[in-house]
Amino acid sequence: MATDLPDPQGLAATWWWPKAQVGNTHPGASYPLGMVSACAYSGAYPTGYGVYRISTEGQPTPLYDRQQASGFTHFQQSGTGAIRKYYNYFRVTPMIEPLDSLGTLWQLHDEVAEPGYYAATLDTGIRCEVTVGAKTAVHRYTFPEARSGRVVVDFSYGGLAIEHGRTVPLRAHMQSLGHGQAEGTIVMEGVPLSVFIEADTPDWRQLLWYDRRLVDGGTRLDFDYIRRTTLRPFGLIFMGPALAGQTVELKMGFSLRGTEQARANVEDELGLGRTRFDKCRSRTRKKWSSYFDQVKVDGGTDARRTVFATSLYHSLIKPCFGDDESPFWPTSGAFVFDICTMWDIYKTQIPLITALAPKRGAALLESLIRVCEEEGNFPIGYRMAKGADRFFRQGSALAHTALADGYLLGLDGIDWDWALVHMQDDLRRVYGEDFLEKDIVHPITHTLDLAYGYHCTAVIARGLGDRRLADELEQRARYWVNAFEPASGLLKKSTYYEGGRWNYSFRLLHDMAARIELAGGDDRFVAMLDSFFGYGKDPVRQLGTPPFADVDGNRDGYGEGLGLHRFEGLNNEPDMEAPWAYHYAGRPDRTAEIVHAALTHQFAPTRGGLPGNDDSGALSSWYVWASLGLFPVAGQNLFLVNAPAFATASLEIGGNEFLIETVGHRETPISSETGTPQAPQFVQSATFNGKPLDGGFITGNELHGGGRLQIELGPEPSAWATKVRPPSVSDRSHG
Predict the structure, then answer these.
(1) Distance (Å, rounded) from C-alpha 26 to C-alpha 36?
(2) Strand runs (DSSP E) across 309-411, as ranges?
(3) Is residue 24 part of a domain?
(4) What is the rounded distance in angstroms from the CA atom of residue 205 to the CA atom of residue 200?
(5) What does R_g of the chain's alpha carbons equal in angstroms?
(6) pLDDT tens digits for 435-447?
(7) 285 with 321, same domain?
(8) Confidence of residue 560 (pLDDT cuts 50, 70, 90)
(9) Which domain range does residue 522 map to?
């Protein structure tokens, strides 16, 4: 099974999802927002862990029939789809077989996964444990009695065991330093990735190997030019007799700036010359706990609390922060990569990171500005790879939303005048050139992106006192209207990435009042939303396994599903903010119903308990915010308020406490705990710091400044927030 989610009921059963309901995450060891991860490696899609082939629609087909691994690799994606940079470098394999058996897949037994720690036992009886620091990894292997135990490090391997999934180093060098130490650098996808290794293997031999043959007496291997057709595997091996219960530890430090810095990272985080597994594991666990302690909830069933904690964990794995590690510019400072799904994470995950770790949020923005300075554009995606492949198809001007929020929140350490220069220039690149000439661009979603980018840039320009520039930018920000078809109230016919015009028609724009007026007013807009969310509709038949053919040779359900024009139910992120569009039309009760249905029926505390790709943490961040009764409107310094899933909750934000309290809260189990649909609750009234909150929103500054949000809940919809709407630029009286 691709997922352990039970069949949805009620409103959730009317939603249609194109992708597999599997999160594409992995259980390996990760450090919060760190540079390094480590996990058991099978070569499966897309993280290297697991059993599935590549899948982009429907249920995935298995690559293997069991959980297994050929070793333990470093640098994995988290929750992504087909990004085609699959990492999994420096595979470490403990063995009692000859080197010729390298690559064998052994079944995994007794798996254990905790924040910062992963363990499993191989068929060979070797107990394998891995933990990581921010820039380091530590392996510990406990051997059975064996005449010849081995720990093999493969410098040449990378990617996945799927078609076109393998990655090959362009250049490489490695050196055995003796006394359990070695170092080397591989250039993968144009990026130099260096490692320093220190092994606690007393009395074991230490040798280089090439093409599965030992290099006796050799201490260095150099490869100046590697092609796929000429590549032969190469690496390092530690080998010797193993007593029953003997442990071997391997410390590894990584750097994008050479082996000396990789060694320094080991020394800084772990120290040299001693075993450090337990210390590293404890330190990383404490780091995770420091983040978990910032978000506390009371109430909720065990399953709901488990899903919430897991979502918070997934939200803080990516992006990767490698301070002082940029291989593309020589100066120190922030460097952030694995911003692999910017078109998703800007809506939910970046606001969550900025709330829980404001300094990290500021560092992310600083890194984006530096990328723009060095490469000429803000990235739409930024991986550990060199080149111009920055996902321009998916979106435009997305960094502008995060920058606008950062400016309005007053994040420290950013030169906003310099940021404004880059924001303005970036609006003129790629699709922005057509937008400048024609005031509209296809794919039509880029018209919305660019108009919103102009709005976000205008916010900073006006804040910095450049009124003339702000006026010019605001004029172009109004061209979002060119993307819509007035007769239908929907976006114009165009090409759409992973969705259709309905999925993108309910974006939360900077002028939702005018957007609703364009659609024909509140009643017509609500009717459109009701149709989109399946009110009064029959349950939908979901996709099975490819090729989706029925007896007539048609693609069974696939075309029908697209033709439904239905909410994708958190399975895919283009419409993840659409439930909150009801707030702008005076129907927060509808928001409550949809969010409750998603939280109840689409997540479970099980393997595969996510409704779709986690997309680097965007989906999990959605779950965190929705459970708290909040949703960030990215780029507008705004949070919409809804019925929380917990009785009380608190967030520690930059030393300030934001407290959410409810009256009349009723516990509701999630669908994995009961087969009976549970009714939602609705906000009856709310106060913020003791004052009535008549509109369903607060500002980002109010959230970050701390305070007390008190919400009265009841079983029926009320008049709360039906008259006072969230702010729109055409109605400044609500600002």
Answers:
(1) 13
(2) 320-321, 336-337
(3) no
(4) 11
(5) 26
(6) 999 999 999 999 9
(7) no
(8) low
(9) 294-732
